[in-house]
Amino acid sequence: MKKNIRKLSESFLHAFRGLRLCIHDERNFRVHMTAAFYVILFGVFGGVSMTEAAILCICFGLTMGAELLNTAIERLCDKQASGYDGMVRNAKDIAAAGVFVCAAACVAVGACIFIGNGVLAAAIKFLWYRLWLGMAVVVTVPIAVWFVFHFGRIQ
Questions:
Q1: pLDDT digits (tens), the chain, 155 positions
Q2: Contacts of 49 (CB under 8 A, 6+ apart)
């Protein structure tokens, strides 16, 4: 029993290590994290429903999961290839296309929720009447830019 619990806890540690590596090394993963942060922030201010929030969380999870898999595929391909290899290039491009498809679907879902349901307008109105909070959000933008482009190793 103790051995099973230890193996389970080790698997979580490995998963968190992989997540930490991706956050540290992969700019595109940080882009997805930053986008998710602002979508969540404006969703809270705009009053998304629980169902809409769940759909957005699924979108974030799928897109970031695809980015994690893309990173793993790219690293394995780079490890295997010695020099240029057309098949490796194709594999990496296809993996990147998978992330692109997930991200595009996430943008479409976000547009339906934020524009179609008036969440964006409600969030802007909410922040307009609480200018101090709106200014706090604006202050986070340079921090987000630093996080995306300067945190960890720049890719």
A1: 788 888 999 999 999 999 999 999 999 999 999 999 999 999 999 999 999 999 999 999 999 999 999 999 999 999 888 888 899 999 999 999 999 999 999 999 999 999 999 999 999 999 999 999 999 999 999 999 999 999 985 44
A2: none
Q: What's the Rg (C-alpha) of the chain?
A: 19
pTM over 0.70: yes
Q: Extract the tokens encoding 18.
A: 């992989």
**Domains of the chain, first to last:** 2-150 (1.10.287.3610)
* Distance separating alpha carbons of residues 124 and 129, to the nearest angstrom: 9
CB burial of residue 45 (10 Å; 0-12, 13-18, 19+): buried
